[in-house]
């Protein structure tokens, strides 16, 4: 299954991309309306969110959502592949379950996007820009 335009959340790479960025660098570039070469693979999103103090996670996700929403770095037909080390869970809300020393942790990655990601397979979901 190829990358779709928008934000692809995957647990296994869907496509080889010429560009790869760590999540923090990706959001810095997008926040500054930098030139992001697409398609791009973004790694470490789950680590970025997990390392935020738990009480502040929803605020950080809201700020990152606003960065994605307001940026002109990415067009509606651009493809971003968020490669996460976890399991996609689409129940009441779209989340990613990651394993840590204290057990399974659920991250509300679906809240990053204006529109909830649509799960295409157990390892691939897409949210439109």
What is the assembly state of the chains in this entry?
single chain
Give the distance, in angstroms, between the N- and C-terminal Cα atoms. Answer: 19 Å
Largest sheet, spatial ordering of strands? 2-3-4-1-9-8
Radius of gyration: 14 Å
Low-confidence parts:
none
Profile the largest sheet.
Answer: 6 strands, mixed
* Structural class computed from helices and strand pairing: alpha/beta
N-to-C SSE string, H for helix and E for strand: EEHEHHEEEEEE
Work out the helix count. 3
Q: What's the helical proportion of residues?
A: 10-25%
Give average pLDDT, whole number: 94
Work out the number of β strands. 9
Instruction: Indicate the proportion of strand residues.
Output: 25-35%
**So what's the overall shape?**
globular
Q: What this model shows, in words?
A:
The strands form 2 sheets. Strands 2-3-4-1-9-8 form a 6-stranded mixed sheet. Strands 5-6-7 form a 3-stranded antiparallel sheet. Helix content is 22%, strand content 33%. The chain is α/β, with parallel strands linked by helices and 129 residues long. The longest helix is centred in the middle third of the chain and has 14 residues, at 57-70.
List keywords for this structure.
alpha/beta, 129 residues, three-stranded antiparallel β-sheet
Q: What is this entry, summarized?
A:
The chain is 22% helix and 33% strand. The chain is built from 3 helices and 9 strands. Strand 6 (94-100) and strand 7 form a beta hairpin.
